[in-house]
């Protein structure tokens, strides 16, 4: 890769110049890209992203679809009407919070119940309901942290809501959910971020509405969900998609019967699926979890109507959960989230 980007910094050997730029924090990439064409090509390249990842200079952050607190909520009173949602970014190392620029098509709030996934340092936002009409949308957007800009991509082939999503090797897999007529789906699709292309996959064995997606190694798991005829009765099974062979495998007794899996599925110490809503009484309602590697962000409430809490679970021998102090503007309900390695 180094030979493709010569004379990055005049007077410095190529290897040393590359390492200087590798150590730039991602928030400086947008400004650095304006220095010269060679810097811009380097900082925007896929090879450079993976170079930073191999050398340990990427940063894992939690990206959250989060309600925006209104003035009345900050005063302790409930607000009327539907909440607006925005994208928040939490850096667990520095304990800092930031908000991503609104999607240009939806300047006043994200589509309700949209899904998020991340691959190669990019954030993908897809689907959901129009925040004004509540009609299902097929929109697909990708956010580049290097340029801090949104691009609208090719729409999802069909409307689907409450589906599972996850990213593996530069592709986003979506499965299950329901269509405009509230019929549960067993169909699955894969989106190639680099080529902006959708491809239909082999369908799952069963319909799975309100399911949850989780990536385990090279497999994409669709956890629980329910059929059209059994709405609200969640399955205990899951189905895993092998991205190398393109096949599905049913996994029995992977999930607790009648437990809604949305946003709260995690991976246990022995490779089993766990429900983070049961990890602590403080997050039993509206739990949302984002796996950040050596730590896990867990959000939720102790009871319906209670303030939303934010907690970091530190893994290791002395595993413990600690409450995070959050600025008021980032204290809203978290609908869903994902880990972004920037």
UniProtKB/TrEMBL annotation:
This is F-box domain-containing protein. One of its GO terms (biological process) is negative regulation of cytokinin-activated signaling pathway. SMART domains: FBOX, Kelch. Residues 12-52 form the F-box domain. It comes from Camellia sinensis (Tea plant). It comes from the Eukaryota. InterPro entries: F-box-like_dom_sf (IPR036047), F-box_dom (IPR001810), Kelch-typ_b-propeller (IPR015915), Kelch_1 (IPR006652), KMD1-4 (IPR044595).
């Amino acid at each position: 890769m180094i030979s493709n980007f010569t004379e990055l910094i005049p007077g410095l050997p190529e290897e040393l110049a590359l390492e200087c730029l590798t150590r730039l924090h991602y928030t400086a990439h947008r400004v650095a890209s304006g220095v010269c064409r060679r810097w811009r090509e380097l900082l925007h390249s896929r090879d450079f992203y993976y170079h930073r990842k191999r050398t340990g200079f990427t940063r894992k952050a939690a990206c959250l679809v989060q309600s925006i607190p209104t003035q009345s909520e900050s005063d302790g009173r409930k607000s009327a009407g539907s909440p607006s949602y925005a994208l928040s970014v939490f850096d667990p190392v520095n304990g800092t919070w930031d908000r991503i620029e609104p999607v240009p098509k939806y300047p006043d709030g994200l589509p309700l119940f949209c899904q998020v996934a991340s691959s190669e340092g990019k954030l993908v936002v897809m689907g959901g309901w129009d925040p004004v009409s509540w009609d299902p949308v097929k929109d697909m957007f990708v956010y580049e942290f290097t340029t801090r800009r949104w691009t609208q991509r090719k729409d999802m082939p069909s409307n689907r809501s409450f589906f599972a999503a996850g990213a593996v090797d530069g592709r986003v897999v979506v499965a299950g959910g329901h269509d405009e007529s509230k019929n549960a789906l067993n169909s699955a699709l894969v989106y190639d971020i680099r080529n902006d292309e959708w491809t239909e996959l082999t369908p799952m064995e069963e319909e799975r509405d309100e399911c949850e997606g989780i990536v385990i190694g090279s497999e994409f798991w669709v956890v629980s969900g329910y059929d059209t005829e059994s709405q609200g009765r969640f399955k205990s099974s899951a189905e895993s998609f092998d991205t190398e062979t393109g096949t599905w495998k049913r996994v029995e007794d992977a999930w607790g019967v009648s437990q809604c899996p949305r946003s709260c599925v995690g991976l246990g110490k022995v490779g089993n699926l766990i429900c983070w809503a049961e990890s602590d009484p403080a997050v039993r309602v509206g739990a949302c979890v984002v796996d950040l590697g050596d730590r896990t962000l867990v959000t939720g409430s102790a009871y319906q109507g209670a303030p939303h809490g934010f907690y970091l679970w530190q893994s290791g021998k002395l595993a413990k959960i600690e409450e995070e102090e959050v600025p008021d503007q980032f204290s809203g309900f978290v609908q869903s989230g994902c880990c972004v390695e920037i």
